[in-house]
Design brief:
Order of helices and strands: HEEEHHHEHEHEHEHEEEHHEEHEEEH
Radius of gyration: 22 Å
Bound molecules: pyridoxal-5'-phosphate
């Protein structure tokens, strides 16, 4: 297999035309859609509309006439099929961490006599931090029981109030078995709360088939919602009106424009909202979501698995002798849409890759993380990225002092 074979595969790729809907800067191989998705070209037009028309001329009237007030629910209805939810079970609002705070607080009300939350210690830290913060507020003996993937099932016993974990591991890309872990949680009487940051838009997810209670996900990665775009929040319909999220702002009130003195919660997914929404960001997020809705999630998964398999094979063939080791599952079905390699000097290698137009990221202490977005990455991208990596490792150019200086964001 050589580059021209891969160009041919790209020409035959049924998803190839999606690439034209994104702005990809000349000379850049963007393998970082697992941090921030590429910009859909339609976002520029949408930005002009929301700012230049809806805000500029519609002013406050756009709350009604441009559908601003309903936007978190409108987008929730759109995203729902991508994660196996019903249209009335999802909203797009706030950040992933804030949504996690809200849903976990609600989930803990399901088992008021229990005090243990099971989490994966190596999870993306914000989840753990947000839960620590929630527990400070709750006091009363609440605590986190940390376990790693292979010990999760055993950690879920009858003391556990909720299991709060991430579907696809942010560093390794390892996929946890959502159905089995949720089943175990329920068998022990615990709620199941999932973080889908690295799975929403990257692979099929079926929250209701797995009987999940609550879930969150960001929209700025594989859903291409834009920097800081608001996050997804899923609450199973059976819990609506029963358990309250605690950030009880007026948007979650059953009649916000009655301006009651007291909080009376909406009996549906609206209760998961807190306050005035970031309309510009929400509007831009819709553009990415609309593109994703036109793709078939099964095709996305097939292409993602092919690209990551090819990448692993080529990196090991070309770069294996330079101290680089696979840090992701080898079996594609246990892996999300990213591949992580360990290298002792991962940071300068990543910086040298950036300098040569390959955008990936570094995750401490030694992971080089490459994200593959089937909507806009091509098989030729995979080849070219490996060739650049080979060149950097072979020449040792990454050893230059300039590549050692840490940026604020890695
Ligand atoms: C698994 C996971 N959860 C949460 C977040 C981020 O949360 P927030 O959007 O609140 O910053 C990330 C960010 O990369 C993540 O990978």
């Amino acid at each position: 297999m050589n580059r021209s074979d891969l160009k041919q595969i790209d020409r035959e790729d049924p998803m190839a035309s999606f690439r034209d809907e994104f702005f990809l800067p000349e000379g850049i191989i963007y393998l970082n859609g697992n941090s921030l998705g590429a910009m859909p070209l339609g976002a520029i037009q949408r930005a002009r509309k929301v700012v230049g028309e809806e805000w500029a001329t519609g002013l406050i009237g756009s709350m009604n006439s441009a559908g601003w007030f309903e936007l978190p629910l409108t987008l929730g209805r759109k995203i729902a099929p991508l994660v196996g939810a019903k249209p009335n079970e999802v909203v797009i609002t706030d950040s992933t961490g804030i949504n996690l705070h809200k849903v976990l607080a609600a989930a803990l009300q399901m088992q008021p006599d229990r005090r243990v939350i099971v989490m994966e210690g190596s999870n993306f830290p914000t989840d753990n931090y947000m839960v620590e913060g929630l527990l400070i507020q709750l006091g009363d003996g609440y605590r986190i029981r940390y376990a790693e993937a292979d010990g999760l099932m055993a950690a879920i016993d009858e003391d556990v109030a909720a299991v709060c974990i991430t579907h696809v591991h942010y560093k390794t890309g390892h996929v946890l078995d959502m159905a089995a872990i949720t089943e175990r949680a329920h068998a022990m009487g615990a709620a199941a709360v999932w973080d889908l940051c690295h799975s929403a838009g990257a692979m099929p997810v079926d929250l209701n088939a797995c009987d999940v209670d609550y879930a969150v996900a960001c929209t700025y990665k594989y859903l291409n919602g834009g920097p800081g775009s608001p996050a997804m929040l899923f609450a199973a319909e059976r819990h609506h009106g029963k358990y309250l999220q605690p950030l009880t702002g007026w948007f979650g009130h059953k009649a916000p424009f009655d301006f009651d003195r007291d909080y009376h919660p909406a009996g549906d997914i609206r209760q998961m909202l807190s306050g005035t929404q970031p309309i510009v960001s929400l509007s831009l997020a819709e553009v990415g979501i609309d593109i994703m809705l036109r793709a078939d999630m099964r095709d996305i998964r097939v292409k993602s698995m092919r690209m990551t398999n090819l990448f692993i094979k080529l990196v090991e063939q070309r770069c294996g002798e330079f101290g680089i080791k696979l840090a992701s599952p080898r079996d594609a079905s246990s892996r999300g849409s990213q591949v992580s390699f360990y290298h002792q000097d991962a940071y300068p290698v990543v910086r040298a890759l950036h300098d040569r137009g390959v955008i990936c990221d570094f995750r401490s202490p030694g992971n080089i993380r490459f994200g593959f977005a089937p909507l806009y990455n091509s098989y030729a991208d995979v080849w070219d990225a490996v060739e650049k990596l080979y060149d950097i490792l072979k020449t040792g150019v990454w050893k230059e002092v300039k590549y050692r200086k840490r940026s604020l964001v890695t």
